[in-house]
Structure formats: structure tokens, C-alpha cells
Design goal:
254 residues; alpha/beta; Rossmann fold; 8-stranded mixed sheet; 9 helices; 8 strands; Class I SAM-dependent methyltransferase; methyltransferase activity; methyltransferase
Length: 254
């Protein structure tokens, strides 16, 4: 027997959403993976590095899943308080030092410290700081969230918004990287299908990925959720499209 609307939202509203592990959604929501395999490529670069910095590491889940380690050390930063303890727990046994940082310039490191700087889904890439902490010949390697990613979710709850003028355009990232002396050696884009199979999955997603509907609570959006639940039961999964781009940039040798 299908679970009721109230049962689904009560469960999703009570579950812990700290960290950046989405396994709770297994079987309830899906998102296509980019074709390039970020974690695999990340591991290859870490294995060749000496000093590695991972910016905005979240709960450290991606970094913890990489077997390779640099010859020197890895340091990770995170600014969201609920994630810091999760990252420390996930990365402690990996020998990674987690530094609490506000994700605003300046980064708490000396000029030219790291030969590899990485970040998966940074809220914002502070290119001046990335270039500053990179050693000559060093590399920045990251998977960014692309323009208008998942806007279908936003628009369902908050109404239409203009698209196509996002600050997350890949070519803007190229321009900003080059502005601070980095050479972009790889830039790839992908559009990826997302599907939500029940209303609990949407509630969990909105509680965890807070920038989609910044003021989201179950109580505030209960009637919108009730309408979406009815729509999903009659028409099938709610579909949206995420956008990602891979960028790799290098700092010139002295």
C-alpha cells in the first residue's frame, strides 16, 4: 500500500541532512552522473601531487572516496558548521586536516603553497585566492555547478525566473581564471537528468540543498508539497535537469 503524503513528509523532515551523502535518496531519486568521472580524475591528480588543498569539501565524502594520496599532505576547508564535524569524521583516518573557513577571501594559507587545488561544486570560486595559493606550475581542478541548474525545482516552488544570465556560465569561469593568470587547459559541460519519485525525496533534497528554496520548511510549503505529491502520484516522477562543468587551469611556471 502506498505511503500517505503525511507519512512521507514526516519521515523526510525528521532525517539528518548534515554532510554531503545522498544515499538516503537511493531508490527515491536519481541524477545522471557527468560523463567524465570527476572522482576518478581527482584521484589521478592527487596521486601526482605533493601538497593538495580541497576547498569547500562539504562532509568530505568525495575526498574520502579517493584512494590516492599526495606525497606530502592534503588540507581541506569547509565553512558550513554542520559539515565541519562530518568532514573531520570522514577524513580523520585519511590523514586529511580539515580547516574551518568562512569560504570568503582570503584563504588561510600562504602564497604559492599548493601544487594542486580542487573543489567539487564550490558555492563560488574565488579565482584571485585560488591563483594566489597555487604554486608556480600548480593546477586547479574542479567540477562546478553550471547555469540554471535544476531551475525546474526552484520554479515549481517560487515561480519563473530569468534564465541564461547566470554567473555560473563556463565561459565566465574561463575569463575569471585567465584574469588572474591561470591557463584553462580543459573545460567540459554536461546536462544531466534528475528524477524525484516521491514527495519525501523532494523534501529531503530541499532541506539539504538549501539554495534551491532558501526559506524552505515543510510547514511553509505544505500546500505546494501536497499539490506536487498529487502530481507525482498521477503523472510520475518530477523531472529537472542539473548542469555541471569540469574545469582545469594551470598556473604558469616562474
Amino acid at each position: 500500500m502506498d505511503r500517505t503524503f503525511e507519512e512521507l513528509i514526516a519521515e523526510a523532515d525528521a532525517v539528518d541532512v548534515s554532510g554531503w551523502d545522498f544515499s538516503w535518496l537511493d531508490g527515491r531519486a536519481t541524477e545522471e552522473r557527468p560523463p567524465w568521472g570527476y572522482q576518478r580524475l581527482l584521484g589521478e591528480r592527487i596521486g601526482r601531487a605533493h601538497l593538495h588543498l580541497d576547498i569547500q569539501t562539504g562532509g568530505g565524502e568525495v575526498l574520502a572516496g579517493v584512494e590516492q594520496r599526495p606525497s606530502g599532505a592534503t588540507v581541506a576547508t569547509e565553512g558550513w558548521a554542520p559539515n565541519i564535524a562530518v568532514a573531520q569524521r570522514n577524513l580523520r583516518d585519511k590523514g586529511v586536516v580539515v580547516v574551518a573557513d568562512e569560504d570568503e577571501p582570503p584563504l588561510p594559507f600562504a602564497d604559492g603553497t599548493f601544487d594542486l587545488v580542487t573543489s567539487r561544486h564550490p558555492v563560488m570560486a574565488h579565482w584571485r585566492e585560488i591563483a594566489r595559493v597555487l604554486a608556480p606550475g600548480g593546477t586547479y581542478f574542479s567540477q562546478h555547478i553550471g547555469p540554471d541548474s535544476g531551475h525546474e525545482v526552484y520554479e515549481y516552488f517560487l515561480g519563473p525566473k530569468p534564465t541564461g544570465k547566470s554567473l555560473r556560465e563556463p565561459e565566465l569561469a574561463r575569463r575569471d581564471a585567465e584574469k588572474y593568470g591561470l591557463e584553462v587547459v580543459d573545460l567540459r559541460e554536461a546536462e544531466l537528468k534528475m528524477e524525484f519519485f516521491d514527495i519525501g525525496a523532494m523534501v529531503y533534497f530541499l532541506r539539504k540543498v538549501i539554495w534551491f528554496v532558501p526559506d524552505f520548511t515543510v510547514e511553509k510549503y505544505r500546500e505546494d508539497l501536497r499539490r506536487l505529491d498529487a502530481q507525482m502520484r498521477s503523472e510520475g516522477p518530477f523531472v529537472a535537469y542539473s548542469r555541471r562543468f569540469l574545469i582545469e587551469a594551470r598556473k604558469a611556471e616562474v
